[in-house]
Design brief:
The protein is an alpha+beta fold. It contains 4 helices and 8 strands, in the order αββββαββαββα. The strands form 4 sheets. It has a two-stranded antiparallel sheet.
């Protein structure tokens, strides 16, 4: 039975050692694609021993290769691939800059409508809003509530 402690005579692996063998290199993009577990937002994750704290794989990779992430900054995936842990594809930026860069790349909403001049509005916190989807949601709400049903 495994109680979470390392077996006798074995030292627990450091987070950096846990990266080894858990990614594959995409020869087309140069991305180091994480192959172990992911969190709900698509970032690679691993556990730190003995605290059992969850760490993000791209942050561990960056700190092992480049150094500490400056306080107040987050890592931007220049390749736009959250599964990538290649430190050369990561750049420390402010949270606002990271969001701005991510929004600039999006060309279509999740339903496939183009983000073009006639179909793009401002959503919450400055994000892009698909006006077609917004109109469809508003129309559906109107029809649901028009007879007093909420």
């Amino acid at each position: 039975m495994n109680d979470g402690r390392p077996r006798r005579g074995r030292r627990p692996k450091t987070p950096t050692e846990k990266l080894i063998g858990k990614y594959r290199v995409d020869s087309d993009t140069g991305c180091w694609l994480w192959t172990a577990s992911f969190n709900s937002t698509g970032y690679g994750r691993l556990r730190e021993h003995p605290t059992n704290r969850t760490l993000l794989a791209h942050r561990v990779s960056y700190e092992a290769s480049v150094g500490p992430i400056p306080q107040g900054l987050v890592l931007d995936h220049l390749c736009r691939n959250r599964a990538c842990i290649n430190p050369e594809h990561l750049e420390p930026v402010t949270f606002a800059e990271n969001v701005r860069r991510g929004e600039a790349v999006k060309t279509h909403c999740p339903q496939g409508h183009a983000y073009d001049e006639g179909n793009t509005g401002k959503g919450n916190r400055g994000s892009k809003r698909c006006l077609t989807c917004h109109r469809e949601r508003q129309l559906a709400y109107y029809h649901r509530t028009k007879n007093g049903a909420a």
